[in-house]
Amino acid sequence: MSVQFRREILTSEILHPAEDFRPVRCEVEVRWDPLTGHSSRIVKDVKLLPASSFNLEAFARKTQTNCFFCRGRLEQATPRLPSAIHPDGRIQRGAAILFPNIVTYSQYSSVSIYSPRLHFLPLERMTPRLVADNLHAQVEFVSAVMRYDNQAHWASINANHMLPSGSSLFHPHTQGAVDRFPTTFQRLLSEVSPEQFEVYLEMERQSGERYIGRVAGIEWLASFAPVGFHELRAFIPGISCPAQLSDEQVEGLGQGIAMALNLYADLGFQSFNAALYGAPPTLSGYMLNLRLVARSNLQPLYRSDATYYERLHWQAMVDTRPEDLAERARGRFGTGG
Questions:
Q1: Alpha-carbon distances, residue 309 vs 133, 185, 235 (angstroms)
Q2: CB–CB of 155/183 below 8 Å?
Q3: Of the residues 139, 146, 246, 327, which has the fewest C-beta atoms closer than 10 A?
Q4: Cα 30 vs. chain centroid, distance in angstroms?
């Protein structure tokens, strides 16, 4: 399979009421992802995901009274890992604390909070230290599980931040998953050849349209064919599994994610999803990669960004050109021209 940056512009004509019903040309751009082949639609002259105007801090206070993840309740309300997986029952790195998910989303499922003290964590306050410590805890969890069960080798580190992203709890956290089988996107990515990964990144670097920069050897870019709003991607060459990340790479990834989330705050968003897609450590040539997307803001009568296009057609409908997002991101990453 070759690496192609395919795009098509579809046009039509309507008699527009705002133009006294004169003919107006309409267009939508369809793009296909060079790695997996999934498609996206980019619409013009419309704002599908408005910036936040909701008082999140006031709402956070209302949700804190019985929060399981806050200090004073976490120790008794959250489960512990079996000693065969981790002797301490929980994993702590800096302020981050990791424990098993009480809801079994995967065979081995974890939750890592950034801090018991941080029930409210807006994206402008995300720091490299907070993100890296959380990632360190998740990487230790993945490594511990893989030592315990050598059949569980499909790992991912994920995030639902704020309620519109699918989080059932307001207190910010990430989730780890280690399974014997891949998710749909893990399978699709695992079928990408090493040559495709390399050619794709080289073409993005040479083009410069969506390429953002490199942080600690990790390549950042805006997705050519996004699966969600304001999608940013990171690729880590030479590594296929989160358990293979070095301390230096975790620190670099934490720095990059923090800058990306600070950018989302600049753009007016406070909710996001993240996925670090791992493959078996033995899958030679696979490139560990991350996907970040902004989600709808929490506010009364907010518009969900998941429509029939996303959920039933597996095709995102977004309102921002990836090239424009990359230009904005380069300023935040300090790599602007």
A1: 36, 17, 27
A2: no
A3: 246
A4: 22
User: In the 8-state DSSP scheme, what is residue 164?
Assistant: G
Which residues are bridge partners to 160 per DSSP?
Answer: 273
Output the furthest CA–CA distance in the chain (Å, rounded).
73
Give CA–CA dist 271/249, Å, rounded. 25
Please give the pLDDT value at position 334. 84
Q: CB of 205 within 8 A of CB of 211?
A: yes
Per the listing, tokens 């790599």 go with 335
Give the start-end residues of each E strand in 166-315: 173-179, 211-215, 218-222, 229-236, 272-277, 288-294
The confidence score (pLDDT) of residue 1 equals 56
CA distance 302 to 312: 21
The fold adopted by the segment(s) 56-333 is HIT family, subunit A (3.30.428)
The tokens 């040309």 sit on which residue?
A: 25
Using DSSP, state whether 299 is helix, strand or coil: coil
Residues 6 or more apart in contact with residue 180 via CB below 8 angstroms:
107, 151, 152, 153, 154
Query: Cα angle vertex 227, ends 225, 233, to 5°?
Result: 75
Reading the block at residue 151, the tokens are 């059949």
Tell me the domain boundaries of the chain. 56-333
Task: Yes or no: say if 181 and 154 are a contact pair by the CB < 8 Å rule.
Answer: yes
Q: What is the model's pLDDT at position 271?
A: 96
pLDDT < 50 regions, the chain: 337
